[in-house]
Design a protein that fits this description.
The chain is of the alpha/beta class. It has a five-stranded parallel β-sheet with strand order 2-1-3-4-5, sandwiched between helices. Helix 1 runs parallel beside helix 5 and helix 5 packs across helix 6. The protein binds 5-O-phosphono-beta-D-ribofuranose (RP5). 5-O-phosphono-beta-D-ribofuranose (RP5) binds next to strand 3.
Length: 165
């Protein structure tokens, strides 16, 4: 049987999937069980609220929410749960994610959303950040994150060697 998901990844539309897949890929790399679905704050508010309200009972510990344009998805979810919520502004629409960034990062005091960068880098970092939070009480996961950082050091050193004149 597959392990129970501890991270919930939500996106406002299936058009967000190429970006949000970055979060899923990094969680998969760390062996963190996750679930992923589409739910919109404005198109399917009842489904989104139900998801957020039931998440903790279902064993979810952190929610990653990605959306473009108005991007109130993360804030909407944060209003319905006390689980930590990470928002990923998606570079959709004519403003290329700046609108989503501002609405994700500018939560009024009291109900936080941890805002990541716009687009794929933000989705990847949301996955890493979720893993880092979970690693506070999981030594084996903490070890995997340290190895991942070491991997990055090696990659940059290799890149430096490659361009050395
Ligand atoms: C948002 O509107 C979604 O998160 C998506 O980024 C954007 C466009 O959605 P679609 O029109 O592609 O379904 O709600």
């Amino acid at each position: 049987m597959a392990e129970k998901a501890v991270v919930g990844i939500l996106m406002g539309s299936d058009s967000d999937l190429p970006v949000m897949q970055e979060a899923a890929d990094i969680l998969k790399k760390f062996g963190v069980p996750y679930e992923m679905t589409v739910s919109s704050a404005h198109r399917t508010p009842a489904r989104t609220a139900k998801y957020a309200r039931s998440a903790a009972q279902r064993g979810i510990k952190i929610i990653i929410a990605g959306a473009g344009s108005a991007a109130h998805l993360a804030g909407f979810i944060a209003a319905e749960t006390t689980l930590p919520v990470i928002g990923v502004p998606i570079d959709a629409g004519p403003l290329k994610g700046l609108d989503a960034l501002l609405s994700t990062v500018q939560m009024p005091g009291g109900v936080p959303v941890a805002a990541m960068a716009i687009g794929k880098a933000g989705a990847k970092n949301a996955g890493v950040f979720a893993a880092e939070v979970l690693a506070l009480s999981d030594e084996s996961l903490a070890g995997k994150i340290k190895d991942y950082r070491k991997e990055m050091v090696k990659q940059v050193e290799q890149k430096a060697r490659n361009i050395k004149g």
